[in-house]
Amino acid sequence: MHHHGYLWTGPKPRFDDEALRRPPHPEPPPPGSRPELVQRYREVAAEFPVSELPPLEVSYWLVKPRALVRGTWDEPTDAAAWLGERLAEYAPRFASNAQRDTAHLLPLINSAVGRLGWGGDVSLGFYLERPSYLSVAVVTCSPNRAATPELPCPFR
């Protein structure tokens, strides 16, 4: 088992485009469907696997391009340390004054170590100034224990 780290920042309205953050339905629209439905399915099917947007289900980061992987670790403590470093890096930009205090991040990191240790995933998000959004995730790989254990490792 190992862990991959992912990070995305961008405009909050782009993050809110949920259609591009969920995988397409496994079956295309049936023959005779409205042309706009077929076109939207094709758009999502083509865009989802290559989009840098964070997926709604954390484990689906594994189908995204390898270039989006920010780090890979065998040990949960190393992956959680990376997570903590990223949060500390962005904390001065958090929209909430209370969240800017990095002391509140320690429980998040400790929880991440435990979750990653048993094979879970960690996904955190914070509003940044402007308004922008920060999404940071660590996904357990080989195997992923979410509802999608068949997802391949991006490095195999």
**What is the terminal-to-terminal distance?**
13 Å
Strand order in the sheet with the most strands: 2-1-4-3
Shape: globular
Uncertain segments = none
Number of helices: 5
- Helix content bin: 25-40%
Strand segment count? 4
Task: Describe the 3D structure.
This protein has a four-stranded antiparallel beta sheet with strand order 2-1-4-3. The mean pLDDT is 91. With 156 residues, the chain is an alpha+beta fold. The protein has five helices and four strands; from the N terminus they run βααβαααββ. The protein is 31% helix and 19% strand. α3 runs antiparallel to α5. It is globular and about 55 Å long. β3 and β4 form a beta hairpin.
Brief account:
This protein has 156 residues and is of the alpha+beta class. It is built from five helices and four strands. Strands 2-1-4-3 form a four-stranded antiparallel β-sheet.
Keywords for this structure?
single chain; 156 residues; alpha+beta; 5 helices; 31% helix
Topology (SSEs and partners):
Layout: E1 2-11, H1 12-15, H2 35-47, E2 71-73, H3 76-90, H4 97-100, H5 105-117, E3 122-128, E4 132-141
Antiparallel strand pairs: 1-2, 1-4, 3-4
Helix pairs in contact: 3-5
